[in-house]
Amino acid sequence: MSAPLLETRALCRNFGALAAARDINFRLEAGARHALIGPNGAGKTTFVNLLTGVIPPTSGAILMKGRDITKVAQAQRVKLGIARTFQINRLFRRLSVLENVYIAVAERIGAATSMVRPAGTRRDVVEESMRLLETLKLTADASRRISELPYGRQRLVELAIALGLKPEILLLDEPAAGVPSAESHIILDAIDSLPPDIGVLIIDHDMDLVFRFAERITVMVSGAVFATGSPREIGADANVRAVYLGRAGHG
Amino acid sequence: MTPSAVGWSEHPAAVALAGRHRLRAWEPIPWAIALAFYFVFPKYLGFGTELLITVLFAISLDLVLGYAGIVTLGQAAFFGAGAYTVGILAKRGIWTEPISGLILAALVAAAIGLGSGLVLLRTQGLTLLMLTLCTMALLEEAANLAHDYTGGFDGLDSLPIAPLLGVFEFNPLYPKTQYLYVLSVLFVCFVFVRTLVYSPFGQSLTGIRENTLRMHAVGAPVRGRLVLCYAVSAAIAGVAGGLWAQANAYVNLGTLGLDRAATVLIILVLGGYGRLYGAFVGAVAYMALSHFLSKIYPTAWQLGLGLLLVVIALFARNGILGIAEAAARRLRPPRPTS
Questions:
Q1: Is the CB of A110 inside 8 Å of chain B's CB atoms?
Q2: Whole-model pTM?
Q3: Which of A138, A160, A182 is the last residue of a domain?
């Protein structure tokens, strides 16, 4: 069996006395549609931060296609094909929507080191950025500054930036949080139309979204993996219902 | 909405992005004024030269502070490095040719910017601010102690600067050559910085300023970019310092002190940072104000300047140019958003 796209082995991270990640063994296969759920403070975002290299693990290893990337810097992991969205928007607030996506696309294709040519004349970057905005129904807002957009539209830009990196592994940290329900289908449609071979890990509290999207679900509780299985298995698991689904009022 | 078959370059956002680097109608005005000054005020060319050098120095600060968002109080370290490079080489008779002297000044300042930037730019915020200040203070003290080379507290005077292009003499009392020379160098450096900030590299600097964490997350080598920008800015500050030493035939510790670093920061905030022309507006406003205030209130004229700064910081964060932009937006009818 070939090495999984992304794998963690006994991954641990302590913040002082708090074990935010405890002995996590996790596999994300190519083409996976994997969801990560768990109560607040379970360590889901910490796990994404470990995977993307925002914080180093206390112990354990992260492997991409069998290669150890535990010590690889954050920016290098992006070059290897790991992209993410943030739970709370991290956008270039005083720049236009187009410029936000432009920066990501320019970085990916190596245009960002050019010091001479005016940025706007790189038609390849501009065209690709605009096409991305089109898939997320954002072209009408392309000239507007991020700070002028409603929060839900900003979430779409957050996703557009991640997609502009053409990742092999996409980590979505609550992509639909704060998006009005009338617009959340745009996010779902965008996730549905991703290339089938990329591995997607989505964190969300919206169980409708999770059960519609995921082919596999991992439940985290207090920094550790509590259960992993198909949506049907997780939905039927009495323990999971007890610690999470039931208590949170979903399910 | 433009159909994608035609391509997206017609979309207003793409048009705006593709057109933002184009020359705007008002842009030749400051240059025309600077040139006219030469003919109209031949008696004030010394003042004019000082002003133009200050503008160039402020532009170097705008690149790091206004575009890349690096908060520094030590920009005068590079101004001083450039000035002392020209001064020491000229005083010792090693190098007196002005244009290549400026290139040497730029190289020395860039090397110091690169070296210190590699260490300093690991930090940010208040730590970074203090470290830039410390670097400058260290350099100032080094210049003070290395008396044999730098002249210590007295500095180096009567620098023998060779005629420009072998023809035009630098006359400290009647600085016609200096004025046009400085104006030309300022123009070349300005075109360079202007090109840089509108390039994809400049766009990525703006990205770092707006959201450093996100820049890491799109795979940008953030620190490398910042160090490069810091070194380029240091080189330009070094050119400004070199010009100052050549124009005055003189260099002293004042070129790399906190006074100069703070003044240039005030100028940039006053004019409006992150706007290129804020350096021009700020320098003129600062020099005019200090001239005017020191006449009507010679003992405490800086108080007036301080009050004005407080007002700017509280109510007009984008400086004088920011006020002008807001006024222009109000006068112009709103553009239709298609």
A1: no
A2: 0.89
A3: A160
Residues of B with Cβ-Cβ distance to A104 under 8 angstroms: 218
Tell me, yes or no, whether A240 and A192 share the same domain. Answer: yes
Q: Tell me the shortest Cα–Cα distance from B226 to chain A, in angstroms.
A: 12
> Closest approach of chain B CAs to the CA of A143, in angstroms?
4
Co-location of A24 and A77 in the same domain:
yes
Q: For residue range B220-247, what is the model confidence (pLDDT) as tens digits? A: 999 999 999 999 999 999 999 999 999 9
Residues from chain A that touch B1, judged by Cβ atoms under 8 A, are 139-140
**B207 and A98: CB-CB below 8 Å?**
no
Please indicate, yes or no, whether residues A152 and A183 belong to a single structural domain of this protein.
Answer: no
A75:B199 CB<8 A:
no
Q: Is residue B28, in this structure, part of any structural domain at all?
A: no
Domain span at residue A94 reads 87-160
Write out residues in chain A with pLDDT < 50, as ranges. 248-251
Kindly report, residue by residue over B129-149, the tens digit of the pLDDT: 999 999 999 999 999 888 888
> Looking at this predicted complex, what is its ipTM?
0.86
What SS3 state is found at B287? helix
Domain count, chain B: 1
The answer on A174 and A235 residing in a single domain is yes
Asked whether the beta carbons of residue A120 and residue B195 sit closer than 8 angstroms, the reply is no
Can you tell me the distance from the alpha carbon of A87 to that of A162, in angstroms, rounded to the nearest whole number?
A: 13
More confident: B94 or B28: B28
Number of domains in chain A: 2
Q: Where are the alpha helices (DSSP H) in B146-275?
A: 147-150, 176-198, 200-210, 212-217, 222-248, 258-271
CB contacts, 8 Å: A90 with chain B: 211, 213-214, 217
Q: Are A181 and A125 members of one domain?
A: no
B25 lies in some domain: no
Q: Does A80 touch chain B (CB under 8 A)?
A: no
DSSP letters spanning A152-181: HHHHHHHHHHHHHT--SEEEEESTTTT--H
pLDDT tens digits, B31-68 = 999 999 999 988 888 889 999 999 999 999 999 999 99
**Is B212 at the interface with chain A, CB within 8 A?**
no
Q: Is residue B140 within a helix (H) or strand (E), and if so which, with residue range? A: helix B125-145
Q: Which of A160, A29, A52, A41 is closest to B213 using CA atoms?
A: A52
Give the B window 16-75 contacts with A, CB below 8 Å: 16-21
User: Is A64 found in the same domain as A16?
Assistant: yes
B15: closest chain A residue by CA: A120
Q: Do A22 and A49 meet the contact criterion of CB atoms below 8 Å apart?
A: no
> Which residues are within 8 A (CB) of B244 and not within 5 positions of it... i.e. 6 or more apart?
B50, B53, B79, B83, B251, B255
Among candidate residues A116, A114, A119, A115, the one with its CA nearest the CA of residue A101: A119
Q: Say if B35 falls within a structural domain.
A: no
Instruction: Assess whether A61 and A17 both reside in one domain.
Output: yes
Judge contact between A69 and A6, C-beta under 8 A: no
